[in-house]
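dumping this here so i dont lose it again. seq + smiles for pyridoxal-5'-phosphate
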Amino acid sequence: MDSGDFRRFGYELVDWIADYLDHAERYPVLSRSSPGQTKEGLPAEPPMQGERMEDILADFREIIVPGITHWQHPRFFAYFPATTSGPSILGELLSAGLGVNAMLWQTSPAATELEEVVMDWLRSLLGLPEAFRGVIQDTASTATLCALICARERATDFRISERGIPGWAGEPALRLYTSTEGHSSVEKGARIAGFGSEHVVTVRTDEDNAMNPENLRRCIEEDRSNGLHPCCVVATVGTTSSTAIDPLGPIGVIAENYGLWLHVDAALAGSAAILPEKRWILDGVEKADSFVFNPHKWLFTNFDCSAFYCRHPDILTSALSIQPEYLKTGQDCRVVNFRDWGIQLGRRFRSLKLWFVLRYYGVEGLQERLREHIGLAAGFASWIERSADFELMAPVPLNTVCFRYRPVGATLPEEELEAMNRELMDDVNRSGRIYITHTRLRGTFCLRLSIGQMRTDLDDVKMAWEVLQQSDVVETRRRER
Ligand SMILES: *Cc1c(COP(=O)(O)O)cnc(C)c1O
């Protein structure tokens, strides 16, 4: 592609994206594509001859866009927000243009040093311990895996990375603790890091769905008396189902007393700690060994960008650094080579978009938006509370509301309530006007509305409430009464 075409189509695509972000609500939030539909529109083999950009873009609009679920739609309330923003997209564009691989300091000194600087900025914004050193990973899953590897290595004096797992069979099994509300990435990491699913101990939660520290202590004691080796605890600040906040203070004391690695998974909720009035969610983080949160969730930085902090970069690099001749450089003793801080060798230049976002909005600009989201969630929760036909299923400390439909006056068995709520969810999602998802809290099926899109405002949340109340499931019941 010559620079003339690149300019022409580049400008055209920037226009397309600008219109898209301004009017994402023209599309149904949840794609109406059926399984296989996108594939049907595409040839089985790549073209032998190059094609015209006009044709490629036409197919993008006609074949790809219908199969898109619109995460940037202001009424995307599913899962968690993954919101992008103008400055983030521009940073990503530059990163693509530079095409840098930031594996070593030398392969782009600015990429490494900017990453160090923005990670220090975020550390201070969230009030994380000074001793934490940061690195950008692709996802929280990867960061948590790195934390589990560190925990494993510290607990075994680096024997597993040296001798492998079978090399020391006969040793007591390493045990990993997280709450029953811990994220699936903890178990996945435990499998990959060699703990095994069986050794992930799920600690019971309290009424508010947060880990009960006394239960944690009991699980550890029990394991010790059974000859097992307690190794690591993963606390969650902002659980995926209901944004419950595990109490880091008491958990940290227990981790310290028993010599456990404390990893804090704050993938979604960590961003909220930039608000002075919400910083309490990280009270006790001083005792953590590692910490992760995702600017790609709720800090307006497009996917992917996960901020991982470790108090002991020496443990991280001892576990993950391999030194082949071809990667050695003359500066290795004076600089950071981030290839040694994670799983991948090749690394994207992600700090650029994060830097753009932090500078463009400024701390106050970011705080303002998060405050607005939290306020909207509180508003929605209050409508649920006041409604006779809906009930709140969990406290709402941040941006996520768990609730369900339970028609007043009817005493319905749980299975029927669940079926009704599933139907309600499918019905509102089919409308294309909102998109919500579900979860289960202490066995009970709940609907979930999570707010964090850059463009979501009060009207959007009001519409969500209307769409729910006007659903056939609710209307039919109301008419029957
Ligand atoms: C979203 C989420 C994750 C997983 O994040 P990825 O970056 O997609 O791996 C982990 N933990 C919690 C609490 C989350 O909310």
